[in-house]
Design goal:
Blueprint lengths: L3 H8 L12 H20 L3 H10 L2 H6 L3 H4 L4 H19 L4
């Protein structure tokens, strides 16, 4: 009987450390989570609060996921700056937080 690791080895998606390598969707979700954490740290708030703010102005569906190919090639500082600028601009437009 084949194990999950055997299946991934056969499919050629085993990472160097012996665990299944993440697929494209997982990589995008990991990136989005890192954006939330970085922005929350910068603002001095919890990741849960930042996630709520970002979701309220559609940053995930209108910026982070659609622009993943470009964003993930930038430095963490640039991505955080860009995301916070977009967040603040959208919140101001919507009449939300700063």
């Amino acid at each position: 009987m084949k194990t999950i690791k055997d299946k991934y080895k056969m499919d050629g998606v085993m990472s160097e450390n012996g665990f299944p390598a993440p697929g494209e969707a997982e990589l995008r979700n990991i990136f989005a989570a890192s954006c939330v954490e970085s922005a929350a740290d910068h603002e001095g708030i919890s990741a849960a609060e930042m996630y709520g703010r970002m979701e309220a102005v559609n940053l995930f569906s209108e910026l982070i996921y659609p622009c993943y190919e470009t964003l993930h090639t930038q430095s963490r500082q640039i991505v955080t700056k860009d995301i916070l600028e977009a967040l603040h601009r959208r919140e101001a437009k919507k009449g939300g937080l700063k």
